[in-house]
UniProtKB/TrEMBL annotation:
SUPFAM superfamilies found in the cross-reference section: GlcG-like
Stated name of the protein: Heme-binding protein
A Pfam family this chain is assigned to: HbpS-like
Superkingdom as given in the UniProt entry: Bacteria
InterPro entries: GlcG_carb_metab_protein, PduO/GlcC-like, PduO/GlcC-like_sf
Database matches in Gene3D superfamilies: Haem-degrading domain
Membrane-spanning ranges: none
Lineage: Bacteria, Pseudomonadati, Pseudomonadota, Alphaproteobacteria, Hyphomicrobiales
């Protein structure tokens, strides 16, 4: 029986590259955003609050990133019947708001990106730019 297993880890360099591309995309559409990138354990790797981004969206961007990493799926796909229970059980860190995407390589989730301050669609577009910058799989339809 093995007591360890190899695993993929998101590097800080990849997190910064993803963050930079997300910022560039947000600037190109004229929507200042809060952008959070976490590892597979929900630990903060990179964050920015762009000039003009909504203050409280800082919290939602973090919750979106953690939720996407934790559930290994885009936010907004949680069962609505469980939404409130999961938020309470997760200490308020889980959300079903659009704008969180898991960061997946070779079918393995290595983290999450969460974006908040625009519309749900704008948040998703910015998160997708982050994934594309590092060649991560995109699970959005």
């Amino acid at each position: 029986m093995s007591v360890t297993k190899p695993s993929l880890k998101l590097t800080h360099a990849a997190a910064l590259k993803a963050l930079a591309e997300a910022v560039a995309y947000a600037e190109s559409i004229g929507v200042p955003q809060n952008i959070t990138i976490v590892d597979d354990g929900g630990n903060l790797l990179a964050f920015i609050r762009m000039d003009g981004a909504k203050l409280l969206s800082r919290e939602t961007s973090m919750s979106k990133a953690i939720t996407a990493a934790s559930h290994r799926q885009p936010t907004s796909r949680l069962d609505p019947a469980l939404e409130l229970k999961l938020a309470i059980a997760g200490g308020g860190r889980l959300t079903n708001l659009e704008g969180g995407l898991p960061i997946i390589f070779d079918g393995i989730c290595v983290g999450g990106v969460g974006v908040g301050s625009g519309t749900g669609l704008q948040d998703i577009e910015v998160a997708r730019a982050a994934l594309a910058a590092i060649g991560a799989e995109d699970q959005q339809p």
